[in-house]
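Re: thymidine-5'-diphospho-beta-D-xylose structure - here you go.
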Amino acid sequence: MRIVVTGGLGFIGSHLVRWILQHQPQVDIINVDALTYAGNLENLADIADNPRYQWQRISITDRPGLEAVFRDQGPIDAVMHLAAESHVDRSIQSGVPFVETNVLGTQILLEVARNAGVSRFLQVSTDEVYGSLGGTGSFVEHTPLSPNSPYSASKAGSDLLARAAFETYGQDVVITRCSNNYGPYQFPEKLIPLFITNGLDGKSLPLYGDGLNVRDWLYVEDHVRALWMVLNQGKAGEVYNIGGNNERSNREVAQTLVSLMHLPETAIVPVPDRLGHDRRYAIDSSKIQETLGWRPETPWEQGLALTVQWYRSRRAWWESIKNGTYKDYYRDQYGTL
Ligand code: NAD
Ligand code: TDX
């Protein structure tokens, strides 16, 4: 079986590629990744020479580039589509790259995959497309889409294009919507790795607003297992929610992290709130649990301790990102970025 994974040099994509190579010996992977600021060859340095793996530096907005991959490396059995602009705060600065990659790029990828006769297309999406919850309730698969940030609006757009491909052409598409992931190799602009790396550097932990916004946290490997299950057993045209059943306020996350890192509580510093900050996300994942038998397996305390330990031991990885030298090896090798 040959699959195209998009965004394999990012956080979740790199875990997915590594997990498939380890657990699915019959699968070869072509990783289509443009190596934006969020991609990092270091994330897959340990498997880069695996004969079952190759990386193609192509943007999903580059139709001829994609067509060449599907023609020259084919036949491709499935696409697992993770490539995206993924950070809400960046989308508040400018939504344009989000529309280009998440909306336009997804549409081009859907078309190229369909024309190449790919049997299944997995659209990896997010709980943020459902909008924000009050104090109670949780998102189910038929909760109306109500995205609030340019990021989540662009992801909702890509979900609707995937749905339209199924409805119009009968293209075999499945959509997953997952809650907040955490774990090793997460880019240190996101809450948990930002707070850990700031804490390890003796810097403050900037908590937005009153710190009472709630997210439902899932360890990244649990997400990856769910993606594989949905790719192989999910029903065409359907949506599967994935979540950790693990709601925490940002203040609680910050307090747990300062305690794990033996820092004073004064390290947590309130800062002005994010514009349009969604108050609460919570995912009801009964459908994937009941129909496919998936469960989150990594307890929060264990996953978070593992994550702090990973960032402690991989200082060179995140320091080179924070000081901007992380792409130097690539520049040296290829002369361009
Ligand atoms: P990330 O930002 O860490 O990685 C994104 C990857 O996509 C990078 O390697 C980047 O180089 C690549 N990329 C960006 N634009 C591209 C383009 N035009 N063409 C080809 N490659 C491109 O993202 P992540 O956190 O790993 O998220 C992966 C996917 O999962 C995204 O679709 C995101 O919306 C979704 N998701 C993320 C979370 C989360 O908590 N991180 C939760 C639910 C869903
Ligand atoms: O410095 C910070 N301080 C802070 O209080 C940062 C970066 C974040 N926050 C808050 C904002 C959110 O309430 O922490 C929470 C988590 O923030 P992010 O890590 O930016 O994640 P979020 O906005 O919830 O979106 C994430 O989950 C869903 C991913 O970035 C998305 O790609 C995914 O779709």
